[in-house]
Amino acid sequence: MTKFDDLNSIQQEIVQNTEGAYLISAGAGSGKTRVLTNRVCYLIDKGVSPENILAITFTNKATKEMQERVTRMTDGKAFGLTIKTFHSFCAGILREFIYKFDGFDKNFSVYDDSNQKALLKKVINDLKVSDDIAKKCEYHISSAKNLGLDPDEYLKDNRYEPNIDTIVSVYREYQTQLKNNNALDFDDLLLKTLELFHDFPSILEYFQEKYKYIHVDEFQDTNLVQYKILYMLGIKYKNLFVVGDEDQCIYTWRGANITNIKMFIEDFKPKVYKLEQNYRSTKNIISRANLLIKNNISRIDKTLFTENDDGDEVSFKECYDEKEEAEYVANQVYILKSRGVDPREIGILMRISSLSRNIEEKLLNYNIPYVTSGIFKFFDRLEVKNVLAYLSMVVNPKDNANVIRIINVPKRGIGQTTIDKLESISRETGSPLTEIIENFRELDVSATIKNKIADFGNLIVKFNEEYKKKSMSDFAEFVINEAGLKDMYNSKSEEDLDRKLNIEQLISSIKDFEYENENATLIDYLESVTLQSSLEKKDDNEPSISISTIHASKGLEFDYVFLIGLEEGKFPLSRALDNADELEEERRLMYVGITRAKKKLYITRAKSRFLYGRREDTICSRFIEEMGIKVPKRQFGGFSSDYDDFVSNDYYSNNYKSNYNAHSNYSNGYSNNYGKSSFGNNLSKSNYSFDSSYSTKKQEFGGSSNNLNKLQSMNSKVSSSKKFDDFKVGVQVFHTKFGVGTIIKREDAEGNNYVSVDFGKIGVKTLSLNFAPLQILKK
Predict the structure, then answer these.
(1) Of these residues, 173, 187, 188, 217, which one is catalytic?
(2) CATH code of 202's domain
(3) Catalytic residue among 173, 185, 218, 245
(4) DSSP helix/strand/coil, 573
(5) Which CATH number belongs to the domain containing residue 738 in this structure?
(6) Is 217 a catalytic residue?
(7) Are residues 342 and 325 in the same domain?
């Protein structure tokens, strides 16, 4: 018999409603998993056969935990109950019925991420697709599958996308080769199940009768294909019980569709319950989370409350730079540990993984063990290890392992057969690979391969020539630029952005080492990295604090949480600053970060960071003020970081203020109040570089009226008109971040006006006139 001792009155009412559709809008820490588990057990107690119950979870961990709870709570009476992840559920169906599709049998392989990438790479090579288009293919194929579109449908819907014909040909051939291999990728598990239900009604009816009671956890993270599967399964009996929190929808970049909640309401007319009592956090933490998330529009209005103690106030620390930020965090962690806090109850969370390097170094200095989640430790990251391999190859040319690692980084088209031949010669002659490559003319290979080896050999010669001439950091930058190591990550994806920032952080690490160790050499630096990696190795049984991205922390909780890097352009990311939907997702991500904390939340920002090869001032994240935390005004270099100190010209005032205030009660921009930098003499007043998120290119703005006049003069050429009729194809426009561009397409979608603008090297951007700081240039 199900007992309700651990459920509140609302939760009990939810559990005992067994017939019909229900949407449970469950706030963070409100016990949603407990409700879901109890509801399944209650159905079994009421005589529903476990074989007629389906529960869909989103992780294997959640599946295992629910299975164990249900088994325990029903005294083993849950035999036949189906609790699976979406992909596992679909795979099981296809094992039984995939024979309905020509070319497949029940022994089909499921390709994981590495298998998918390998096959896609083969297809791209077979079709001789250029590198710039190849980088886009994986994104487009994934987007198509998340939308449930085959190659022809995707081509029709994206006919104006640059190079779409080539991309779709790759998609089509990729699917053909999967079929030839009797294989499906993860997305195909969903698509083939949907296709099966659509094409074979008798099979759909079988599963509709089998699963009369359907439960879904983390419903906000479902994509469109998953929703269609649920719709087809549940539409007959309409016994769908979905639990989710639109305020925690943080995976739209991988297909999650928050509008599924809206569609569910329209399609099933569910009874909606709100779980608003938080059992995890203190009143002060919940209060800040509520203030923040109320700035979002796309949500079911709910206000979390808790009967827990008030707890400590949320701590906000503005630090001088990233070094002081890391020192502050490490010191606070040390203090907590010294007070007897279990290290496993401490989490350091960040929006982007590139911020972890300084934190990791300081924790090592304090001898505080840590583990990473969702990220590799800094010096274990692929792009960092590649740069280090290049540097090691120069300082120790006899180490063949480094050469093997980077001979095709970036891709040079030197095949494995050639590499094997080079290694064989090295073993036979006792000569290092660097020497053999520099003397490539003696190799018995084709002229084409000789040219490719020659290019690599010339690069090695160039590195050797510059090695003794340059400082450590200058040489590292030279190697990175000449080898094209940052150019490998030029797509607009978040992953590529993070990789480029990690390379920047490596340069910063070398600069720090130079500054702290006079007369040190590159050999010394590389040795220090090796020693640090050795120090990072720990006893697996030793309690450790966690360093994680916020995405990877979903589902976790800690007594003490540190949220670092709260600056505009970092959190929220710069790409979200003029995109309403992305800004809301960033705010949801911040909300998730806040609600990981149970007892105490620490938030930090650095007033200055080393970015893009230079030190730049930062602007405090809007999320701080949205949480109700007052940010001290600060003057620097002729500009103010305070959001309301806006320069009095029509373009910046009208455009930025109206758009941000309309959406999130936020404004930001320039101030013509000239004040002394709080950084003292470390920053030149005439050489302040404003954040790239707010300028067309890196321009030097300082405390001189001449520079401000130039800015105002530029803006005076910009029209303040925002009428959609004026934004015609062919018209030139100006955008604060992307610069000058030409409109190539326009669209009016349900009152939302969009234009596609070609910004030259930056590429084509589709922008909403409701939010984007976009103005027509007067001729």
Answers:
(1) 217
(2) 3.40.50.300
(3) 218
(4) strand
(5) 2.40.10.170
(6) yes
(7) yes
pTM for the structure as a whole: 0.69
- Closest to 54 (Cα-Cα) out of 29, 14, 86: 86
Record the tokens describing residue 76, joined without a space.
């083993």
Residue 412: active-site member: no
351 assigned to active site:
no
Helices (H) and strands (E) in the chain, counts: 29, 25
- At 759 the three-state DSSP class reads coil
Residue 41's contacts (CB-CB under 8 Å, 6 or more residues apart) are 2, 70, 73, 74, 78
Strands 739-749 and 183-185, how do they pair? unpaired
- Tell me if 491 is assigned to some domain: yes
Average pLDDT, consecutive stretches of 10 residues, N- to C-terminus, the chain (779 residues): 76 93 94 92 93 92 89 88 92 93 88 86 90 86 89 90 92 93 92 96 96 95 93 96 91 79 93 94 97 92 95 95 94 94 96 90 88 83 92 89 89 85 85 83 72 87 90 92 87 79 88 82 84 60 89 92 95 88 94 97 94 80 95 51 33 34 35 30 30 32 37 39 76 77 80 79 74 71
540 belongs to the catalytic site: no
CATH classification of the domain holding 403: 1.10.486.10
Distance CA 561, CA 138 (A): 35
Active site residue 505: no
Options 381, 511, 570, 596, the catalytic residue? 596
Name the active-site residue from 37, 226, 248, 549.
Answer: 248
Is 559 catalytic? The answer is no
